[in-house]
């Protein structure tokens, strides 16, 4: 069926695979700004950079694109779905850099091992960058532990950078009163929202063309239905568009119309999540927090 699917439309690859693929990356206005914030964080050696977005918004794909642009002067560690207490956190971190903890090591031993690694990399002219994907799973206590790791930095030199990507609740966690010191260390932050209807249509055409198609294999009415059902979330757009192409091929249709999208929805093939919550701007609690918020807004303007 897979080869029949590709041959029917003349695709060289599936246009709507849900796996992150930098080669298929669609640079929406929001993605461009999010990527600019990530690059800004690396360029300025910001101790903490945070990017949030709904499930399937493209955060992981952005990180993969970012990793392809980093040079030999950075040592990158990537952690996905880390959980556990502070001791587990250090084991995750050491594992990300292929560092074996000393036999029988306790928390202090593992911290010293990591600190020695950061200092040795700095001496060799390399900056250590630690990236956490799905960082909302860490919880408030572990995030505070991450803040303590940034104390490795000293003087005017930044030895360690942290980049956190997560779902919208990550921003809620960071803005809790008990994490005020963590929020003050965040130099740049951005929320990657869902697509509007025009952007969804451009996204669908982009992926069809990248796969070797004309971009017209799904018509405008079908694109509008896909956007509405997916609520503008890229991963959901991929799922629905992929199934729509399968239904179209089975019906020997060269162009998918809205009727085909309606048919697969009636057949119960799509499970949709609740709408993305509206994120209120965090209310600054004191003068320092207001300065942090002002800095975030300036970063966003610079990235535009």
UniProtKB/TrEMBL annotation:
Q: Which Gene3D superfamilies match?
A: P-loop containing nucleotide triphosphate hydrolases
Under InterPro entries, the record lists: AAA+_ATPase (IPR003593), AAA_22 (IPR049945), ExeA_AAA_ATPase_DNA-bind (IPR052026), P-loop_NTPase (IPR027417)
**Which residues are in the AAA+ ATPase domain?**
45-196
Report a single Gene Ontology molecular function: ATP hydrolysis activity
Identify the Pfam families for this entry.
AAA_22
Q: What's the name of the protein?
A: AAA+ ATPase domain-containing protein
């Amino acid at each position: 069926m897979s080869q029949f699917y590709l041959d029917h439309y003349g695709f060289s690859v599936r246009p709507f695979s849900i796996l992150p693929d930098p080669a298929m990356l669609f640079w929406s206005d929001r993605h461009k700004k999010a990527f600019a914030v990530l690059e800004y964080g690396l360029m300025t050696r910001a101790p903490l950079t945070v990017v949030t977005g709904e499930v399937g918004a493209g955060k992981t794909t952005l990180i993969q694109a970012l990793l392809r642009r980093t040079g030999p002067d950075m040592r990158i560690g990537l952690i996905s779905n880390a959980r556990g207490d502070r001791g587990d956190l250090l084991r995750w971190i050491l594992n990300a850099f292929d560092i074996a903890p000393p036999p029988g090591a306790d928390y202090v031993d593992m911290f010293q091992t990591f600190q020695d690694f950061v200092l040795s990399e700095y001496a060799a002219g390399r900056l250590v960058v630690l990236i956490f994907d799905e960082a909302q799973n860490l919880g408030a206590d572990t995030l505070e532990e991450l803040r303590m790791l940034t104390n490795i930095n000293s003087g005017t030199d930044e030895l360690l950078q942290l980049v956190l990507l997560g779902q919208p609740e990550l921003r809620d966690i960071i803005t809790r009163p008990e994490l005020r010191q963590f929020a003050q260390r965040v130099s740049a932050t951005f929320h990657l929202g869902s697509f509007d209807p025009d952007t969804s249509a451009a996204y669908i055409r982009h992926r069809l063309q990248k796969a070797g198609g004309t971009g017209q294999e799904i018509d405008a009415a079908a694109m509008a239905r896909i956007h509405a059902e997916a609520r503008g979330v890229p991963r959901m757009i991929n799922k629905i568009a992929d199934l729509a192409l399968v239904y179209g091929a089975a019906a020997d249709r060269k162009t998918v119309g809205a009727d085909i999208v309606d048919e697969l929805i009636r057949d119960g093939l799509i499970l949709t999540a609740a709408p993305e919550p509206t994120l209120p701007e965090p209310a600054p609690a004191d003068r320092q927090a207001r300065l942090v918020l002002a800095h975030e807004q300036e970063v966003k303007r610079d990235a535009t």
